[in-house]
Design goal:
Elements: E1 3-10, H1 15-28, E2 33-38, E3 47-54, E4 68-73, H2 76-82, E5 86-95, H3 102-107, H4 114-123, E6 126-130, H5 132-139, H6 145-155, H7 163-173, H8 176-186
Length: about 190
């Protein structure tokens, strides 16, 4: 079985760590994996995305449009921007909290993200909305949005792992003082 996963958002949201956790978990389970990220704009709050491919007979980390099984969108506009990669019947797990792009800030426009969420709900059969702001407020740290999003994606069954699998890998990856907080975020109930 092969899985094509696309993770997208803006710099500082933890996209690269999320990608590394999925890749490391795949390797722990002897699942071949390849990944590629764009990280050049990460320091400036620009677009960041990661392609991951899991399974046998993969020869390149990138995949063509209309072949992603899941898009994990940490920001609504970025999820919409990557939507051409989603296959028919694929799933989008998206954070409902927008981040104002620099261009919108400079032009004085008001971007709320609602139009992007509406677009996703009209055009994607399987959309999971995650109230990222509520989650990080309840958990007590803005730095765990990536774990909230990853946990939501895993629980919705598209990834070939359990939350326990991801947690085991996370415990080997993050500093010990952050394990409990990240575990709480992975297991956060998005309802």
């Amino acid at each position: 079985m092969q899985s094509n996963i696309l993770i997208c958002g803006v710099g500082g949201q933890g996209i690269v760590l999320t990608s590394k956790l999925i890749a490391a978990t795949a390797m722990e389970h002897d699942i071949p994996v390849m990944s590629a990220e764009t990280i050049g704009m990460a320091q400036k709050g620009g677009s960041v995305f990661s392609f991951l491919r899991l399974g046998d007979d993969i020869y390149c980390p990138m995949f063509p449009e209309k072949t992603a099984d899941i898009i994990i969108g940490f920001e609504p506009a970025e999820a919409v921007r990557m939507l051409p990669y989603l296959r028919d019947g694929g799933q989008v797990v998206v954070n409902t909290h927008p981040i104002m792009p620099v261009t919108a800030t400079l032009s004085g426009s008001d971007y709320t993200g609602n139009e992007m969420l509406d677009y996703l709900q009209r055009n994607v059969e399987n959309v999971v909305l995650v109230d990222g702001n509520r989650a990080i407020e309840e958990i007590g740290s803005p730095k765990v949005l990536n774990m909230v999003m990853l946990g939501a994606a895993v629980r919705n069954g598209v990834l070939p792992f359990s939350v326990d699998d991801i947690e085991d890998t996370m415990k080997k990856t993050v500093r010990p003082q952050f394990v409990e907080l990240n575990s709480k975020a992975l297991r956060y109930d998005i309802k």
